[in-house]
């Protein structure tokens, strides 16, 4: 199975939708997904994801399924740079300065502030596992037992924070490092293949992170929304 994890197009947060530029992004994305091939559409219930997804649903003539668990994370904000920010916006220099690299025996899940996020992360994990079980993959430890072979390509329209956190679960990586080490542009496509190298097990493998090929093809700029860095 191939999973397309898609961040919504350029957001208009104030009006709970996407911007004019975001609509252009979403149209280009729809054409790209049509050529790539998609068998199922899933979407966050939040309007900026829904309004992005509609172009693809209409072009492909597909009925999307709303998945409430894929909405943006409403996790406690953190103090950084003199202001309160989403936890995935904490600067990498702060994350890595306090990361237990030197202490091999340290369990980062038990350290503040990450321990406060663990119940929320475990809820995301449970929802992810239930979702993937519906598609034939049953998680056991860090791998997935193949219960039913699946050759579909499924697209999930979601969000930056949620997408990064879901990737951390799928790929078995600490979410604080994923938050501070990766970024997904608006309307970008991240491709995860459930690689089957045996008859029994599948393992998620990231084939491409945050691709904006559709924007380049359409001659559109890449929005920097959510990138709090020198490139913004």
Describe the structure.
By secondary structure, the protein is of the alpha/beta class. Helix content is 36%, strand content 23%. It is built from 7 helices and 12 strands. The strands form 3 sheets. It has an 8-stranded mixed β-sheet with strand order 5-4-10-1-11-12-9-8. A two-stranded antiparallel sheet has the order 2-3. A hairpin with a 5-residue loop joins strand 11 and strand 12. The radius of gyration is 18 Å and the shape is globular. The two termini are 34 Å apart. The model has no long low-confidence stretch (mean pLDDT 94).
What's the gist of this structure?
This protein has 232 residues and is of the alpha/beta class.
Spatial arrangement of strands, main beta sheet: 5-4-10-1-11-12-9-8
Low-confidence stretches: none
Structural class: alpha/beta
Mean pLDDT equals 94
First-last Cα distance: 34 Å
Number of helices: 7
Q: Strand count, sense and closure of the main sheet?
A: 8 strands, mixed
Helix content: 25-40%
Quaternary status = single chain
Rg is: 18 Å
What order do the SSEs take from the amino end to the carboxyl end, as H and E? Answer: EEEHEHEEEHHEEEHHEEH
Q: Sum up the overall morphology in one term.
A: globular
Beta-strand portion reads 15-25%
Tally of strands: 12
């Amino acid at each position: 199975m191939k999973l397309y994890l898609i961040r919504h197009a350029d957001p208009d947060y104030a009006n709970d939708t996407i911007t004019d530029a975001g609509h252009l992004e979403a149209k280009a994305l729809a054409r790209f997904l049509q050529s790539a091939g998609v068998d199922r559409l899933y979407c966050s219930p939040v309007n900026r994801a829904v309004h992005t997804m509609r172009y693809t649903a209409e072009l492909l003539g597909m009925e999307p399924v709303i998945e409430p668990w894929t909405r943006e994370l409403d996790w406690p904000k953190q103090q950084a740079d003199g202001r309160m920010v989403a936890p995935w916006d904490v600067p990498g220099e702060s994350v890595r300065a306090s990361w237990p690299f030197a202490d091999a025996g340290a369990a980062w899940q038990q350290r503040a502030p990450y321990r406060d996020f663990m119940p929320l992360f475990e809820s995301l994990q449970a929802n992810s596992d239930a979702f993937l079980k519906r598609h034939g993959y049953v998680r056991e430890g860090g791998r997935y037992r193949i219960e039913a072979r699946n050759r579909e390509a499924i697209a999930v329209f979601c969000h930056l924070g949620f997408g990064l956190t879901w990737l951390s679960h799928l790929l078995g990586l600490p979410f604080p490092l994923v938050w501070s080490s990766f970024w997904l542009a608006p309307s970008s496509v991240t491709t995860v293949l459930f690689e089957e190298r045996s008859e029994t097990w599948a393992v998620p493998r990231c084939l491409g992170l945050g691709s904006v090929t559709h924007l380049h093809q359409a001659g559109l700029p890449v929005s920097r929304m959510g990138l709090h860095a020198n490139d913004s």
